[in-house]
Queue: 3 jobs
Job 1
Amino acid sequence: MYIEIDFNSDEAIYMQLRNQIIAAIATSQLKEGESLPSVRNLADNIGVNMHTVNKAYSSLRQDGFLKVDRRRGAVVAVDIDKLHFLNKMKVLLQPVVISGIVKGISREEAKGLIDDIYDELGF
Amino acid sequence: MYIEIDFNSDEAIYMQLRNQIIAAIATSQLKEGESLPSVRNLADNIGVNMHTVNKAYSSLRQDGFLKVDRRRGAVVAVDIDKLHFLNKMKVLLQPVVISGIVKGISREEAKGLIDDIYDELGF
DNA sequence: TAATTGTTATACTTATAATATAACAGAGTC
DNA sequence: GACTCTGTTATATTATAAGTATAACAATTA
């Protein structure tokens, strides 16, 4: 697990952590059933507080990317409720896409960006 | 201009304002060259502080959705630098789309969401 | 002159992010 | 049994950002 935190970013540390872990799952650097570093261990590694890592893990658990195994700590366990997530995803995409529309970005150009992202991850 | 603020939302008021103004531009409720309500006027209407509206206007100006005409106040004036905005848009879409990939949402399903958003706005 | 425009400055309150210690219950190891 | 490690919870503190509250400024309009 290679995590890189930008402390000058305006994005919260726990969100950077969250997004990078999800990306690691998407690229199979983290596989279903695999354990993540302990909150204390990862916190030491990247030089942040334990609670910051815990907040990232908690939100990942909340959104169905992790489960907690008392024996093995935080484990990758993606629960897939596509319908629910499609709605959530649309809400998140909406403001970004609408800004694009105003800026003259065509439907096909927007879909091109989606293609780019899928391509770069090898999907 | 119909603006509706959800004070219980976790989305900042000035961001709700910003997104709704951009959406109004996209749907031609606000047209190029049209004036927006004054910061004080709009602030009174929706029941927030003047500075909250000013923050929304400032960020819209910064991102090239408005210009300030000393005679007419804040005016819709979309400056279009597509290339720059495509890059910005990709960065914003990335974490959302990657989450979708992990949740098993296919490339075509993601593009379907883009279509939905364009369709709903009539583009 | 009076009123309006966006903008800037200052001060205050509130909410959230992040840090710092500390403790807990459950599980594994010696 | 003693010890260590797991996520989790509690409490307190600091820092930053959001939002409110007044006030003033220069430019413009009536």
Job 2
Amino acid sequence: MNDSASNGTDSGTDGTSPGPRRSDATRAAILEAARERFAADGYERATIRAIAKDARIDPSMVMRYYGNKEGLFAAAVSYDLKLPDLTSAARDEVGRALVTHFLAMWEENEELTAMLRVGATNQGGAERMQEIFREQLLPVARQACPDPEQAPARAGLVASQLLGLALTRYVLRFPPTVALAREEIVAWLGPTVQRYLTAPSP
Amino acid sequence: MNDSASNGTDSGTDGTSPGPRRSDATRAAILEAARERFAADGYERATIRAIAKDARIDPSMVMRYYGNKEGLFAAAVSYDLKLPDLTSAARDEVGRALVTHFLAMWEENEELTAMLRVGATNQGGAERMQEIFREQLLPVARQACPDPEQAPARAGLVASQLLGLALTRYVLRFPPTVALAREEIVAWLGPTVQRYLTAPSP
DNA sequence: AGCGTAGGCCAACACGTGTTGACAGTCCAG
DNA sequence: CTGGACTGTCAACACGTGTTGGCCTACGCT
């Protein structure tokens, strides 16, 4: 509950910007190591000691800069899926666009894998994923699907397919799923997502 | 590596059957508690002490009967998806049949949820899920899909959808996905799985 | 009845964890 | 030059974990 982000030291004459700190490199190294470890091991097995060793500093620095393990995780992974505005996209291409975007997001860094691994074991992680789903994927479904009443169910179906792909490809690493090329995935999953969003309920 | 299952004590005149032991009730209680805990908490957070407390016995009993924590997990969860023989089923109903079967399997006990949670965090768990995939789902795909060459990729796609549903419904518990009725899920996912198995590659 | 053996509990060990506080070097403002 | 803050290290604490061995009890066979 204590604040570890309270820093009143501005370094220049400009009073507005926080100003760069000498330890920014260390902070960044910690975050990068934390992302890797959380993505590879999940929450419980990603120990602060291991993260500190990867970042080549002392474990106590992690505590000083991020308060505790939970704070470190919150600082290391971001909640933003950066979903593009799909209203301008062609109505019958929303599925492919979504799959393409998710694939890119998932492979450009390890934050989402970390979040998924943690969400599978940690209660707090699961709740954070529910938030992401509700605040980011749900609005997209509301725009794309015909009956707004059905948006939650349809968004849930989309999430099941997209997260299922991430699970089998990046976490469980089923060989055939790992071997699929990006375009193949888009070609297979795009129509599925499209149908979940826009097809009349069966 | 040591054996904790070596029991040469037969209780009756019949020499063939192992014979019931006095501690069978305890063993069963341990396994049941273990399944619940592994399903609810994953491998690391499901402590032997907690399992023992649920089973109302001492933690050391768990060790005596199952050797170590890994042995307990192996004894608690089964690997058998009991996939029905789908050769006799109608060719265009394989998708719905698979989804229906998976839903029933997943909800009749907590073993699959436990396996999924553990697979997401534990290296050994992930490998065990790869085995299940390879030895049980893959053969079904080989029977159902036209070109045997494409069976692995198609089985991987099916796994992504089925495990994704399990993830969002039983682990992350996304409210809209939890709220779906079984028939709705079959109606939505059945055609998807069917397409992944039998449709010509896009 | 007597005895061996299995069932069960208790206390403890060794270890790894998150977390904390005291201490030394280092940079910059005054 | 001097003081204070920031950065970093070291050692330790309190706790929970898997795991082990010793002890007592009670059943079941002879």
Job 3
Amino acid sequence: MVTISDIAAALGVTPSTVSRALSGSPRVKEETRLAVEQMAAEMGYERNVVASNLRKGKSDIVGIIVPRIHRNFFSNVIGGAESILEAAGYCVLICQTHERLEAEMKALRTLRNNQVAGVLMSHAIGALDGKHILDALGSHIPLVQFDRVFSDLPGAKVVSNNFEGAYAATRHLAEQGYRHIGTLAGYMNSEAYAARLEGWRQALRDCGLPEGEVYEDTIVRETGFEAGLKAIDAGCDALYSAGDFSALGAVEAARSRGLRIPEDFGIVGTANETFTSLMTPSISSLALNPFEMGRQAAQAFLSGEEGTVVVPMELKVRESSCRIHSENQIPDKPCLK
Amino acid sequence: MVTISDIAAALGVTPSTVSRALSGSPRVKEETRLAVEQMAAEMGYERNVVASNLRKGKSDIVGIIVPRIHRNFFSNVIGGAESILEAAGYCVLICQTHERLEAEMKALRTLRNNQVAGVLMSHAIGALDGKHILDALGSHIPLVQFDRVFSDLPGAKVVSNNFEGAYAATRHLAEQGYRHIGTLAGYMNSEAYAARLEGWRQALRDCGLPEGEVYEDTIVRETGFEAGLKAIDAGCDALYSAGDFSALGAVEAARSRGLRIPEDFGIVGTANETFTSLMTPSISSLALNPFEMGRQAAQAFLSGEEGTVVVPMELKVRESSCRIHSENQIPDKPCLK
DNA sequence: CCGGATAATACAAACGTTTGCACAAACATC
DNA sequence: GATGTTTGTGCAAACGTTTGTATTATCCGG
């Protein structure tokens, strides 16, 4: 492995000059810099980033912690963040928590021990507050939270307009004539889910509909199925689900009770997972904009600004919630107006 | 940040003793080790892995390079590898190449510069051979290839039984009465796709069917759609697709030509992406076993053994290829026997 | 009680880079 | 031409750990 000392020796200068030349310091003569660069290229030098990191006390690695990478939402956030960070010379260390708090803590420790330049994260559902995050990262590792955020933690945050999105989704169901709209609410220790719940509630009030049933802790297919059955038994004719997998479960629940979708039962999910547009019936979904959220999170890290960025959601109206003129509907196109 | 020197000072020993104590060297007294461990815990010490890595010349990071993390297949491979590596004390650095050779080379350089302990990878389609991999990793960073492998490179390999899988898929189509079976073959510079092509070819021969059309470079929805149209125009009544997204495109192509699936046109895809079982019609797919492949790849890295591990594929028969008694079929259950 | 083996620890040199400070030379200012 | 300022380099000390070798303490048999 060729080091800066080798280059220095070959050129009759000192390692410090080589180091400065390669890092673009204004304190070396243009001529020297060129000589160094040429010799470095010639000898096939590549900087030992581990040594560099040790000396500088931080690395060019940015850690991203997500519950699960195979969720469309998260893999797209990662993609968005990567597109920005890579251009800025960082590389990305991805950790999955599988929604487990202990895995999240381990990931945080790992990242800190590797002296990452920053952490972008969406916390596990198992985490009740962000204390462990603060403890692990201390004050010198910048933190950017996205989607699931603890708003009392310092640092930048990137979120969706969950309240408005859920409001629009619920209102859409009401406009389609559904009158008893429940919700699969997700986990209440996540502010994102809590905001969606409030949006749903407000929409019901504004539409003059009675308070609907709330089914918490529903986020996967199985729990969506069970809650869907309960909702049907409780007399619901529609559900706004804060997740797509649980919406899928609810669709299956309705089917298993012999209900037609959307004629007898309407459903809107959240996240716009790939399958929602491919299924029959296709599932209406409140789309997040994960790629953009990833980009914004990365930008926030790079700029160091601390504010909260709101990335708007978009309601994708599909078959599962369109019972007005539903035979004319084309999936993915709004059916109103 | 508390260092081993701090612990040493507090205990009146030297840093070297502390280091040895913490790394479990037999050259420290049991009593000293306990004292060190206790003091370390008390002071909240955590090893600076960057310094450790520099000194040791390698890190506890294992790099995983995949074309795209949001593909179900790859995210599950990562999950499988992670489950093994994490237990062994490694952490995982994930890089995406987006199928671009230059991104792959950059990822390899990044990993080498970070002195990773090993690399697990599935090469980008853009790569014609593995020379750049060898160049980047040299001989001292162990390499494990999975799924898409260059068989002339050294190191362990984990692959599916692509030939046998494609053979079974094609045979299944023939047994369903399809007589003109083409293939969406993927990219021929990948040995995995080449093997599937051969399996398809052999099945046609063994079933006494004529040689079918081959559409190369089909791997995404759009190219699958285009190739699907061509296949239909060429008189095909079925396709074995080496990917699911291209199979999806082909389904859409058949629909756009007014063909009924599976009555008029049969399709089997590959990879068992989530959407295949949720669509209508559900798409039959040749399932890989990504989680197991990831586990095997990680095991191969840990053990250092160089052989080739074959993980079997499993044909999931669904609606898109079941025209015999197709109204009785239940998705996901085989319809034969 | 001494010589030699063994056990436990100390010493010091790495690993490759970065960076504050010192230093010399060149240049500008009065 | 003395003084101050800029410009380019060299020197050396870090960063925190690991590890080969030297050193001391401990123990044994004779």
